[in-house]
Amino acid sequence: MCEFLQGAVLSQKIREVVKGKNARCAVAFWGKDAEKELFGPGPLEWSNVQIVCDLSMGGTNPATLRALGAPDNPNIRYLDGLHAKVFMSDLGAVVGSANASNNGIGFMGGNAQLLEAGTYFGPDSDSCRTISDWFDDLSKRKSKRIDSTALNAAQLAWNSRRKGSAQSNVQIDRGFLDYDPEVHGLVHVLWRNWNGNVKEYCSLDGLQAPRSWQNLATEDYDIINSWVADFLPEGRNSEVVFFFANDVRRCAEIHEEYPLLYFQNKKKETQSPPFNFEDEMLSAAYLQVIMEDRYEVLRCAPDRGRWLVRDHLHDMHRFWRDVQEEYRRRQGGN
Question: Most exposed residue of 163, 249, 313, 324, measured as fewest CB within 10 angstroms of its CB?
Answer without folding.
Answer: 163
